[in-house]
Amino acid sequence: MNYVLVAALGLAAGVLSGLFGIGGAILIVPGLVLLAKLPQQSASGTSLAALLLPVGLLGFLQYYKRGLVNLPYAAIIAVGLFLGALVGAKLAVSLPDATLRRAFGAFLMLVAARLLFF
């Protein structure tokens, strides 16, 4: 995989994250698995490392400047994210790659169905 394609994947994920408030992982993880041929666990870890600061900080500032952030809710969610990421990462690295890939695919299908039909 060349660095230009990885950079394009990051740019697309950043735009979608800022536009829809989604985690870029919804685009980055499948991109790394399908295009870069990374194992699911490596794709998840790489996505987390890449998203840690740029998306959260810069996206947050744009919404915060317009009064569109509920800070108490954000703090409560952050605690859950902090603890949940630890549990999720431990679970992810313990599962076979194929199992994790199928679970991620099922998750994406559920999200898509929810957004399209409910």
Describe this structure in words.
It is a single chain. The chain is mainly alpha-helical and 118 residues long. The chain has one domain (3-117). The protein contains 6 helices and no strands. It has helices spanning 3-20, 25-34, 40-51, 54-65, 71-94, 97-117. The longest helix has 24 residues, at 71-94. The chain is globular, with a radius of gyration of 15 Å. The chain starts with a helix and ends with a helix. The model has no long low-confidence stretch (mean pLDDT 85).
Relative helix content: over 70%
Order of helices and strands: HHHHHH
Number of helices: 6
Uncertain ranges: none
Taking the sheet with the most strands, its summary is: none
| Mean pLDDT over all positions | 85
The tally of beta strands, per DSSP, is: 0
- Report, as a whole number of angstroms, the end-to-end distance: 37 Å
Strand content: under 5%
Categorize the overall geometry.
Answer: globular
Give me the Rg, rounded.
15 Å
Q: How does the helix and strand content classify structurally? A: mainly alpha
